[in-house]
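Internal QA ticket QA-208
Title: Verify multi-chain structure generation after dependency bump
Assignee: T.L.

Test input:
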Amino acid sequence: NAGVTQTPKFQVLKTGQSMTLQCAQDMNHEYMSWYRQDPGMGLRLIHYSVGAGITDQGEVPNGYNVSRSTTEDFPLRLLSAAPSQTSVYFCASSFTTGINEKLFFGSGTQLSVL
Amino acid sequence: AQSVTQPDIHITVSEGASLELRCNYSYGATPYLFWYVQSPGQGLQLLLKYFSGDTLVQGIKGFEAEFKRSQSSFNLRKPSVHWSDAAEYFCAVGDSNYQLIWGAGTKLIIKP
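Actual output:
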Protein backbone atom coordinates (compact mmCIF):
# COMPACT_ATOMS: atom_id res chain seq x y z
CA ASN A 1 0.00 0.00 0.00
CA ALA A 2 1.85 3.09 -1.28
CA GLY A 3 -0.25 5.77 0.49
CA VAL A 4 0.55 9.27 -0.78
CA THR A 5 3.33 9.46 -3.35
CA GLN A 6 5.02 12.70 -4.31
CA THR A 7 7.49 13.25 -7.12
CA PRO A 8 10.10 14.55 -7.51
CA LYS A 9 11.79 14.60 -4.08
CA PHE A 10 14.13 17.43 -5.06
CA GLN A 11 13.97 20.06 -7.80
CA VAL A 12 15.99 23.12 -8.73
CA LEU A 13 14.42 25.68 -11.04
CA LYS A 14 15.47 28.96 -12.53
CA THR A 15 13.28 32.01 -12.07
CA GLY A 16 10.52 32.01 -14.67
CA GLN A 17 10.54 28.28 -15.34
CA SER A 18 7.40 26.25 -14.93
CA MET A 19 7.00 22.78 -13.49
CA THR A 20 4.49 20.36 -12.04
CA LEU A 21 4.76 18.61 -8.70
CA GLN A 22 3.01 15.27 -8.82
CA CYS A 23 0.86 13.77 -6.08
CA ALA A 24 -0.96 10.46 -6.19
CA GLN A 25 -2.83 8.48 -3.55
CA ASP A 26 -4.13 4.93 -3.74
CA MET A 27 -6.51 5.03 -0.78
CA ASN A 28 -9.59 6.32 -2.64
CA HIS A 29 -9.50 9.53 -0.58
CA GLU A 30 -11.94 12.30 -1.43
CA TYR A 31 -9.88 15.12 0.03
CA MET A 32 -6.44 16.14 -1.24
CA SER A 33 -4.39 19.21 -0.49
CA TRP A 34 -1.08 20.94 -1.04
CA TYR A 35 0.90 22.67 1.70
CA ARG A 36 4.15 24.55 1.74
CA GLN A 37 6.49 24.44 4.72
CA ASP A 38 8.91 27.29 5.38
CA PRO A 39 11.42 27.60 8.24
CA GLY A 40 9.89 29.03 11.41
CA MET A 41 6.38 28.80 10.03
CA GLY A 42 3.67 26.23 10.22
CA LEU A 43 2.31 24.49 7.17
CA ARG A 44 0.35 26.81 4.92
CA LEU A 45 -2.41 25.54 2.68
CA ILE A 46 -2.00 26.34 -1.01
CA HIS A 47 -4.93 24.58 -2.69
CA TYR A 48 -7.25 21.76 -1.86
CA SER A 49 -9.80 19.49 -3.50
CA VAL A 50 -12.87 17.79 -2.04
CA GLY A 51 -13.32 15.46 -5.00
CA ALA A 52 -12.61 14.95 -8.68
CA GLY A 53 -13.37 18.11 -10.64
CA ILE A 54 -13.53 20.32 -7.52
CA THR A 55 -10.70 22.52 -6.31
CA ASP A 56 -10.45 25.58 -4.10
CA GLN A 57 -7.87 28.05 -2.88
CA GLY A 58 -6.20 27.89 0.46
CA GLU A 59 -4.25 30.50 2.38
CA VAL A 60 -1.42 31.08 -0.16
CA PRO A 61 -2.65 30.21 -3.68
CA ASN A 62 -0.91 32.89 -5.74
CA GLY A 63 1.54 31.54 -8.33
CA TYR A 64 0.13 28.00 -8.16
CA ASN A 65 -2.44 26.11 -10.16
CA VAL A 66 -4.13 22.78 -9.50
CA SER A 67 -6.56 20.41 -11.15
CA ARG A 68 -8.24 17.16 -10.07
CA SER A 69 -9.29 15.14 -13.06
CA THR A 70 -9.20 11.83 -11.18
CA THR A 71 -9.67 10.81 -7.55
CA GLU A 72 -6.09 9.57 -7.36
CA ASP A 73 -4.07 12.50 -8.73
CA PHE A 74 -3.69 16.11 -7.63
CA PRO A 75 -0.80 17.86 -9.42
CA LEU A 76 0.47 21.29 -8.38
CA ARG A 77 1.71 23.58 -11.15
CA LEU A 78 4.10 26.46 -10.74
CA LEU A 79 3.38 28.71 -13.67
CA SER A 80 6.43 30.98 -13.49
CA ALA A 81 8.71 30.09 -10.61
CA ALA A 82 9.95 32.81 -8.26
CA PRO A 83 12.59 32.66 -5.50
CA SER A 84 9.79 33.20 -2.96
CA GLN A 85 8.48 29.78 -3.93
CA THR A 86 11.58 28.06 -2.59
CA SER A 87 10.09 25.77 0.01
CA VAL A 88 9.25 22.20 0.93
CA TYR A 89 5.94 21.12 -0.53
CA PHE A 90 3.71 18.45 0.97
CA CYS A 91 0.71 16.75 -0.50
CA ALA A 92 -1.84 15.35 1.96
CA SER A 93 -5.08 13.43 1.66
CA SER A 94 -7.92 12.18 3.84
CA PHE A 95 -10.87 9.87 3.34
CA THR A 96 -13.42 12.65 3.56
CA THR A 97 -13.45 16.39 4.12
CA GLY A 98 -14.46 16.22 7.78
CA ILE A 99 -12.29 18.17 10.18
CA ASN A 100 -11.89 15.08 12.33
CA GLU A 101 -10.28 13.13 9.51
CA LYS A 102 -6.68 12.01 9.76
CA LEU A 103 -4.45 13.52 7.10
CA PHE A 104 -1.98 11.26 5.30
CA PHE A 105 1.11 13.06 4.05
CA GLY A 106 3.56 12.41 1.26
CA SER A 107 7.28 12.62 2.00
CA GLY A 108 7.65 16.06 0.45
CA THR A 109 9.31 17.86 -2.46
CA GLN A 110 12.17 20.21 -1.72
CA LEU A 111 12.09 22.99 -4.32
CA SER A 112 14.76 25.62 -4.85
CA VAL A 113 14.19 28.51 -7.24
CA LEU A 114 17.34 30.38 -8.22
CA ALA B 1 -8.81 34.78 13.79
CA GLN B 2 -7.73 31.32 14.79
CA SER B 3 -4.09 30.80 15.59
CA VAL B 4 -1.74 28.27 17.11
CA THR B 5 1.38 29.11 19.10
CA GLN B 6 4.16 26.69 19.92
CA PRO B 7 6.40 28.79 22.18
CA ASP B 8 9.46 26.56 22.00
CA ILE B 9 11.37 26.39 18.72
CA HIS B 10 13.78 23.76 20.08
CA ILE B 11 13.71 21.53 23.13
CA THR B 12 16.57 19.29 24.26
CA VAL B 13 15.79 16.34 26.52
CA SER B 14 17.94 13.50 27.80
CA GLU B 15 17.00 10.02 26.71
CA GLY B 16 14.73 8.48 29.32
CA ALA B 17 13.58 11.84 30.68
CA SER B 18 10.02 13.11 30.51
CA LEU B 19 8.83 15.48 27.82
CA GLU B 20 6.24 18.22 27.57
CA LEU B 21 5.73 20.26 24.40
CA ARG B 22 3.55 23.32 24.69
CA CYS B 23 0.73 24.37 22.39
CA ASN B 24 -1.61 27.32 22.86
CA TYR B 25 -4.48 28.07 20.52
CA SER B 26 -6.88 30.88 19.84
CA TYR B 27 -10.33 29.75 18.79
CA GLY B 28 -13.81 30.91 19.72
CA ALA B 29 -15.67 27.62 19.80
CA THR B 30 -14.77 24.16 21.02
CA PRO B 31 -11.63 23.38 19.06
CA TYR B 32 -10.57 20.33 17.14
CA LEU B 33 -6.93 19.86 18.15
CA PHE B 34 -4.19 17.73 16.67
CA TRP B 35 -0.55 16.82 17.19
CA TYR B 36 1.50 15.61 14.23
CA VAL B 37 5.13 14.46 14.15
CA GLN B 38 7.59 14.90 11.29
CA SER B 39 10.65 12.66 11.30
CA PRO B 40 13.66 13.88 9.30
CA GLY B 41 13.02 13.70 5.56
CA GLN B 42 9.50 12.41 6.04
CA GLY B 43 5.95 13.67 5.81
CA LEU B 44 3.85 14.35 8.88
CA GLN B 45 2.15 11.60 10.85
CA LEU B 46 -0.81 12.01 13.18
CA LEU B 47 0.05 11.36 16.85
CA LEU B 48 -3.32 12.12 18.43
CA LYS B 49 -6.39 14.31 18.20
CA TYR B 50 -9.02 15.83 20.49
CA PHE B 51 -12.60 16.64 19.56
CA SER B 52 -14.65 16.23 22.71
CA GLY B 53 -15.03 14.12 25.83
CA ASP B 54 -12.12 13.07 28.00
CA THR B 55 -9.62 15.91 28.07
CA LEU B 56 -6.66 13.52 28.35
CA VAL B 57 -6.06 11.94 24.96
CA GLN B 58 -3.83 8.96 24.29
CA GLY B 59 -1.96 8.66 21.04
CA ILE B 60 0.54 6.48 19.26
CA LYS B 61 4.16 5.90 20.33
CA GLY B 62 3.31 6.44 24.02
CA PHE B 63 2.33 10.10 23.65
CA GLU B 64 -0.58 11.79 25.37
CA ALA B 65 -2.00 15.32 25.38
CA GLU B 66 -4.26 17.21 27.74
CA PHE B 67 -6.83 19.76 26.64
CA LYS B 68 -7.20 22.62 29.12
CA ARG B 69 -9.92 24.99 28.03
CA SER B 70 -9.19 27.53 30.77
CA GLN B 71 -5.59 27.86 29.55
CA SER B 72 -6.35 27.43 25.81
CA SER B 73 -3.67 24.77 25.78
CA PHE B 74 -3.14 21.31 24.36
CA ASN B 75 0.28 20.21 25.60
CA LEU B 76 1.90 17.00 24.43
CA ARG B 77 3.61 14.72 26.95
CA LYS B 78 5.61 11.54 27.10
CA PRO B 79 6.88 10.01 30.36
CA SER B 80 10.17 8.69 28.95
CA VAL B 81 11.62 9.70 25.58
CA HIS B 82 13.61 7.47 23.28
CA TRP B 83 16.25 8.52 20.76
CA SER B 84 13.76 7.67 18.00
CA ASP B 85 11.48 10.45 19.24
CA ALA B 86 13.86 13.07 17.83
CA ALA B 87 11.70 14.87 15.30
CA GLU B 88 9.70 18.03 14.77
CA TYR B 89 6.27 18.21 16.39
CA PHE B 90 3.39 20.29 15.09
CA CYS B 91 0.22 21.32 16.85
CA ALA B 92 -2.82 22.25 14.75
CA VAL B 93 -6.39 23.46 15.27
CA GLY B 94 -9.31 22.90 12.93
CA ASP B 95 -10.95 26.12 11.82
CA SER B 96 -14.51 27.00 10.86
CA ASN B 97 -13.80 26.18 7.20
CA TYR B 98 -12.73 22.65 8.10
CA GLN B 99 -9.08 23.45 7.42
CA LEU B 100 -6.15 23.11 9.78
CA ILE B 101 -4.24 26.06 11.23
CA TRP B 102 -0.72 24.94 12.10
CA GLY B 103 1.79 25.99 14.70
CA ALA B 104 5.37 26.68 13.64
CA GLY B 105 6.63 23.45 15.17
CA THR B 106 8.96 22.41 17.99
CA LYS B 107 12.14 20.53 17.16
CA LEU B 108 12.92 17.86 19.74
CA ILE B 109 16.57 16.97 20.29
CA ILE B 110 17.45 13.92 22.35
CA LYS B 111 20.71 13.85 24.34
CA PRO B 112 22.22 10.39 24.80
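Spot checks passed. The mean pLDDT of chain B is 92.
Status: verified.
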